[in-house]
Amino acid sequence: MCWQIALGIASTAANTVVQAEQSRRQNEAYQANALNANQNATEQYYQNNMQRIQEEAKAVQQRMENKEGVLKAKGTALASTENSGQSTSQVLRDIERQGAKADNATDVNLKNAKANAKSTEDSIKQQTQGRIDSVAQGADTSIAATAINGLGIVAGAYQKNKYMAGNTASTGSGGSKGVTK
Predict the structure, then answer these.
(1) CA-based nearest residue to 38, from 122, 124, 119, 121
(2) What is the mean pLDDT of residues 101-124?
(3) Coil, strand or helix: which one is 120?
(4) Residues with Cβ within 8 Å of residue 45, at least 6 apart in sequence
(5) With contact defined as beta carbons under 8 Å apart, do 24 and 138 qualify?
């Protein structure tokens, strides 16, 4: 019986060590994957932010060009003597309106570019989390489960030994019970 208990306990201990090693390796794979996913996300965030900065710079440039165009058109209108019968103030207001319309279009384009950049950022975040979650973490070995398994082996060996002892005694092969001379 002792050798069965010792063998069961040794087997349980070996299984626990193997499970702990597998868990450690799985956790290392999870950590490496998470690190790679976060590095990739950082590069994507950088690209996205650079694009956003470029869009903002483009909008500032466009607004400056709009202002320049309005000023040139005003100068031309003031210098022109042929306003086709319209008053100079009406021509100047029309030029201002056209400039404001161009600025508004620039603002709308910038707003859309920012919304797209935000959407891309959210997508990067979801992809990164999905990539991290695609590798399972290793399960920790449970001391309680190992102890219960070990106790089960000990109890099983004890019951088997008790059964074998009782079975041997009742068949008469090991004792004097049932034998009369």
Answers:
(1) 124
(2) 95
(3) helix
(4) 121, 124
(5) yes
